[in-house]
Amino acid sequence: MAIAVIDIGMTNKKVAVYTNDLKQIDARYRIFPPQTLDGIEAHDLAAMETWFAAELGAFAREYPVEAIAVTTHGATFVCVGKDGCPVLPCVYYTHEPGDAFHAAFYEEFGAPETLQEQTGTPAFKALINLAKGIRFAQIRYPESFSRTARILCYPQYWGFRFTGNIGAEGTYMGCHGYLWDQRARRLSSVAHSLGVAPLLSAGLRNSWDALGSVAPEFARKTGLSPKTVVTMGIHDSNSALLPHFAKKGAERFALNSTGTWCVSMNPSEPYGFAPEELGKAVFFNLSAFRTPIKTANFLGGHEFEAWSRILMRLHGRDDIPPYDPALCRAVLREKSAFLLPELTAGSGQFPGSRPRIVENGREYLFETVSSIGRREDAPPCFQDYGKGFALLCLSLVMQSLTGFERIGLAAGTQVFTEGGFRKNRAYNSLLAGALPENRVFLTDIAEASALGAAMTAKMALTGKTLGELSRDLEVAYREVEKDRFPDLPAYRTAWLSLTYPPASGPPPAVS
Fold first, then answer.
1. Together in a domain, 47 and 149
2. How far apart are CA 215 and CA 261, in angstroms?
3. 254 and 275, same structural domain?
């Protein structure tokens, strides 16, 4: 038995094959540039589908593929017509429609804090939730939208293209979309006010349920057996939790999933916000078991790549410098240089912060730094390659710590870091040192979202529960050694004071 997984990130798309014992044995990767339509970036669905079919066909000739599972990034949907084809562009959720759009949205559908309490969704900028994306589509493409027969969440769109069947499952419908009422466990008032409730599938199924078998035409195109099962699909962050749910059972943990998005997740009961959390970038997703996952995120991988490119260009290098604890301690002790978020406004924990370097009281905006051509014209801290990367890693750690605070990370709770930052020793050492009351672990799971999706497919094929799969799954947890950084709390207090705009009041105290 083999399982095919389609793992769709914002940057990388992947088709992988897993064995019966849930080991990845093959994978193909590709990046699809966005289509730009009237200045708006959209996903190239047709090109992606052609590639998925070709890779699935190649794998079907080599492996006994019996099931396909799909996992995707969030905040994305596809409007399909009666013929099953998209009727309008699948717009990137990073598109920013402007302040007037956001103000009108909340004027029409409810105050941000009210909607956050009901749906678990905070007031993200851009189109980082389904309801705002749908409203934008209604306004920007009114004629095309009028031809919409169904609105499909992104994983279920691909399942529909493979099987011809339509459905919905909890991890995506309950993922910062304003469409699901977390307390009433039904479509929200926003979904009804948008007039799209009849276009959505309100009955949620499990991520490991079978959506159906591949359609005859798709079987002919790929060479897959007509009996190949396609599961319901799953949101990628929630998929990354499944290996740990399987191995740890009821043991408390928090997952630090890193990549383009850095997502902090704390499985927690019951659902609900403290009054001081409303209006903050903290939210609840639904797990694959429909239990609440308190969550905070920021575009950490995006920020790391953007600032790294500047440093590499200025220094004519393409490597990441080795971790230097003495240099990190010196930066923390001096408290003279800081790198601040957010490159995508309103996407993370500091929506009022302008992306910039502050050094000895002088500000250097990201736009200015990114246009500098010579190293000697850069801010002094960026003239030193190692120091520039130390500042960047510290900024990522500062943002991670705020996310952990907002998801209610308790003393003694273990933290598991997954994804791209597992290989960033400076980030991991600084993070472990900043959490003296929590043990921080790295695992040997290279791609947790894809593995979680493979687990759902095996559950569909075998009828096994997630707990029963733990015997088929090997995960190694390696604890990060704690370095001492005595000046980190004071540095963080200074860093926070620069991220908050004057109108927001003083930053939170740091112990």
1. yes
2. 34
3. yes
Domain limits for position 321: 300-401+486-504
- Report the CATH number that the domain containing residue 12 is assigned in CATH: 3.30.420.40
The reply to whether 185 falls in a domain is yes
Could you tell me the CA-to-CA distances from 404 to 235, 351, 413, 498 in Å, in that order? 21, 17, 11, 20
Bond from prior residue into 107 cis (ω within 30 degrees of 0): no
Q: Are strands 210-213 and 229-231 parallel, antiparallel or unpaired?
A: antiparallel
Say how many domains are in the chain: 3
**Cα separation of 323 and 116, whole Å?**
40
Q: How many H helices and E strands in the chain?
A: 18, 25
CA-closest candidate to residue 72, choices 150, 174, 157: 157
Pair (211, 360) in one structural domain: no
- For residues 231 and 248, state if they share a domain: no
Q: What is the pLDDT of residues 431-468, one digit of tens each?
A: 999 999 999 999 988 889 999 999 999 999 999 999 99
What is the residue whose two structure tokens read 């079919």?
53
Distance CA 182, CA 285 (A): 9
Structural tokens at position 162: 């493979």
- Asked whether the bond before 270 is cis by omega within 30 degrees of 0, the reply is yes
DSSP E strand boundaries for 341-389: 356-359, 362-365
Q: Provide the token pair at 51.
A: 């590639």
Q: What is the DSSP letter of 421?
A: G
CB atoms within 10 A of CB 154: 24
Cβ contact 135:105 at 8 Å: yes
How far apart, in whole angstroms, are the C-alpha atoms of residue 377 and residue 379? 7
Predicted confidence (pLDDT) per residue in 51-106, tens digit: 999 999 999 999 999 999 999 999 999 999 999 999 999 999 999 999 999 999 99
Alpha-carbon span 339 to 395, nearest angstrom = 6
Residue 510 domain flag = no
Same domain (yes/no): 119, 91 = yes
Q: Residue 264 is inside which H or E element, if any?
A: strand 262-267
Edge-to-edge strand ranges of the sheet holding 362-365:
337-340, 356-359, 362-365
Q: What is the DSSP string of 56-67?
A: HHHHHHHS-EEE
Express each pLDDT in 400-412 by its tens digit: 999 999 999 999 9
Residues 6+ apart with CB under 8 A from 292: 120, 182, 267, 268, 269, 270, 271, 284, 285, 286
